[in-house]
Backbone:
């Protein structure tokens, strides 16, 4: 327990001591200057009853003075505001996970299944940061790395609804599709679609402080690796894999079974080169295995922010003051001779 205003005691206690000293000096000086003088008091003073009452008077008077001093000191202590100080240190985990989704029409069903599965994983995260990046012709960072899991789930719900709209014929299906298309079809007339390497590279560089901060990083990469770009990507898939490897980012690739064998093999090589793994999307255990792999990645706590909470605790001094004043009142009634 600490005092919020300790200066009250620093000033108040010396003043109380000074006042007590002055009272003692004044009392000694005026002890024979007030009251009436009476002769022949020896008989009264030798009376046992008188002696008994005088002793009682002195004890009660001393107790009365003691309670007065206690009440003043307790009041000063209460004015100094005793408080309970608690320092809470938030803990963050140095594991960052990006969900990188190819949202071209050939992968929509696989994306939709992955999103449904990954929601449960997000609900169980504690401290890790997660982000969402989607791509087609161009890349769109839907969620930067964050530990605001409610927001992540909200975005996943919207993305799930948008992808599901491709198989719907309802009137508002086109409007819902725009959520996953917005920002991912920039320049598609001249660049084509499904630019896989660019999408991966863009996601990699969405990790903040890649070279400055050492953290455990992983990408869940969902694509069929069917590059339909005009003139080729800016960054090839293999180049993207090398960038991930150089920065210690593990790629866990998820690919539909319908993809070409050569495309599967290339994706598998990129994932394994980075230290990650390759999975076939139709495998019911694929997402669970990806989550298990990421969970097995080493993580360590990093010191977060410290927050100091100060809570006033006036209860004890107030209770003591009430008791002291109550006793003072009782004793004052008994000081008679």
Residues:
């Amino acid at each position: 327990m600490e005092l919020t205003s300790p200066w009250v005691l620093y000033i108040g206690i010396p003043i109380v001591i000074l006042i007590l000293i002055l009272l003692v000096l004044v009392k000694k000086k005026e002890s024979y200057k007030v009251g009436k003088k009476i002769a022949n008091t020896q008989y009264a003073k030798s009376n046992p009853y008188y002696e008994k009452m005088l002793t009682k008077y002195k004890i009660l008077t001393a107790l009365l003075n003691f309670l007065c001093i206690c009440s003043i000191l307790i009041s000063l202590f209460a004015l100094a505001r005793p408080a309970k100080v608690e320092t809470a240190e938030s803990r963050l985990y140095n594991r960052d996970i990006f969900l990188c989704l190819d949202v071209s029409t050939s992968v929509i069903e696989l994306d939709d299944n992955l999103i449904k599965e990954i929601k449960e994983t997000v609900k169980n995260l504690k401290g890790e940061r997660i982000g969402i990046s989607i791509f087609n012709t161009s890349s769109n960072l839907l969620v930067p790395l964050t530990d605001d899991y409610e927001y992540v789930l909200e975005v996943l719900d919207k993305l799930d609804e948008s992808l599901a709209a491709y198989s719907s014929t309802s009137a508002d299906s086109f409007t819902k599709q725009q959520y996953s298309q917005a920002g991912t079809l920039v320049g598609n007339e001249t660049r084509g679609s499904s630019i896989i390497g660019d999408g991966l590279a863009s996601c990699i560089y969405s990790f903040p402080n890649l070279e400055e901060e050492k953290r455990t990083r992983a990408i869940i990469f969902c694509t069929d690796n069917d590059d339909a770009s005009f003139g080729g990507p800016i960054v090839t898939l293999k180049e993207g894999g090398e960038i991930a490897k150089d920065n210690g980012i593990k790629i866990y690739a998820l690919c539909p079974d319908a993809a070409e064998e050569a495309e599967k093999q290339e994706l598998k090589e990129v994932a394994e080169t980075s230290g990650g793994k390759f999975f076939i999307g139709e495998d019911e255990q694929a997402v669970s295995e990806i989550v298990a792999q990421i969970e097995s990645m080493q993580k360590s706590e990093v010191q977060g922010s410290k927050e100091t909470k100060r809570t006033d605790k006036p209860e004890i001094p107030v209770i003591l003051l009430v008791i002291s004043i109550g006793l003072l009142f009782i004793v004052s009634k008994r000081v008679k001779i």
